[in-house]
Write a structure and sequence with these properties.
With 199 residues, the protein is an alpha/beta fold. The chain has 7 helices and 7 strands; from the N terminus they run βαβαβαβαβαββαα. The longest helix has 24 residues. Pfam families: Formyl_trans_N.
């Protein structure tokens, strides 16, 4: 069994990170998180600590420019020589140099059916648009904002009267499962990121 080494990047509570940590508790799961990085003192880092996974934090406010922040973030990631970098609720747009160094082995979860509703407020935007469904996308990160090749998607119905938080919670449930499945499929060579990126 090929075991993928992962670095996971988070900004918040880390529910997607937790799903991957729980998945790797199964000895048969073909991926292992070697480190977790964040752009702030994110609450989700506690999940990594619980599982004994090393963490690092690279706050943008400590750097004179976005590029300098990106260079330090890339350096911290590359220390671990991961097979795959997973943005799991990481709320920063990565600078081009970081993307070019890591892509296509750099994936992201997004709470919408891309290309609909890219950006940081996808759930709110879907509700505002009055559409009947949104969803979850796991995609390769490229230099655009949520524009990279799609790995997997699943629709989520918007119920009448849904609030942003209610809809987001339902989306997160799907997101955790889809991300775990995407990592499994990449590890098992059912998804070839190089081919997807050049298709």
């Amino acid at each position: 069994m090929t075991v993928l080494s992962l670095v996971v990047l988070i900004s918040g509570g880390g529910s997607n990170l937790r799903a991957l940590l729980d998945a790797q508790s199964d000895a048969e799961f073909p991926a292992r998180i070697v480190a977790v990085g964040a752009d702030n003192d994110a609450a989700g880092l506690s999940h990594a600590e619980e599982f004994g996974v090393p963490t690092f934090t690279v706050p943008p406010t400590s750097f004179e420019s976005r590029a300098a922040w990106g260079d330090e973030l890339l350096e911290q990631i590359e220390v671990w020589n991961p097979d795959l970098v997973v943005c799991a609720g990481f709320m920063r747009i990565l600078p081009p140099r970081v993307v070019s160094a890591l892509s296509p082995f750099l994936i992201n979860t997004h709470p919408a059916l891309l290309p609909a509703f890219p950006g940081a407020h996808a759930v709110r935007d879907a509700l505002a648009a009055g559409v009947s469904q949104t969803g979850v996308t796991v995609h390769i990160v490229d230099e655009g904002v949520d524009t990279g090749p799609v790995i997997v998607q699943e629709a989520v119905t918007i119920e009448p009267g849904d609030t942003e938080s209610e809809l987001h919670e339902r989306i997160k449930t799907i997101e955790r499962r889809l991300l775990t499945q995407a990592v499994l499929d990449i590890a098992n060579s059912r998804v070839n990121l190089r081919e997807l990126a050049t298709a």
